[in-house]
Amino acid sequence: MAGFLDNFRWPECECIDWGERRNAVASIVAGVLFFTGWWIMIDAAVTYPTQAEMNHAFHTCGVFSTIAFFMINAVSNGQVRGDTYGEGCLGRTEKEVAPGLAVFFQNAFIFFSTLIYKFGRTEDLWG
Predict the structure, then answer these.
(1) Contact at 8 Å (CB) between 59 and 37?
(2) Domain limits of the chain?
(3) CA angle 56–120–54, rounded 5-degree value
(4) pLDDT confidence tier of residue 1, bands split at 50, 70 and 90
């Protein structure tokens, strides 16, 4: 999926030079969208404070989206494309992808088992 929008170009506008301001504009727009999303949910939580009016589990989606936002932005685009890798200790590998897949699947299975263990059980049987 890396490079999906690499060839996409905004329509050229000669009145604004986006070259040096692209990062600032993207950061401001992303921050406003992030703030707006949380503001809407906080407003709904204040407007409907009880469990009967709004289920508190609805906040889970926003929390996971926020965690995903930070996780996605913690990795540079060059690392995703493989541009930053060279030869050496952490360099590119030709055929040995099994260790990387093992780490990925280990963490994926632990993540899903955590979700199932947390939300798949009922506390009614403990009493």
Answers:
(1) no
(2) 14-56, 75-120
(3) 15
(4) very low
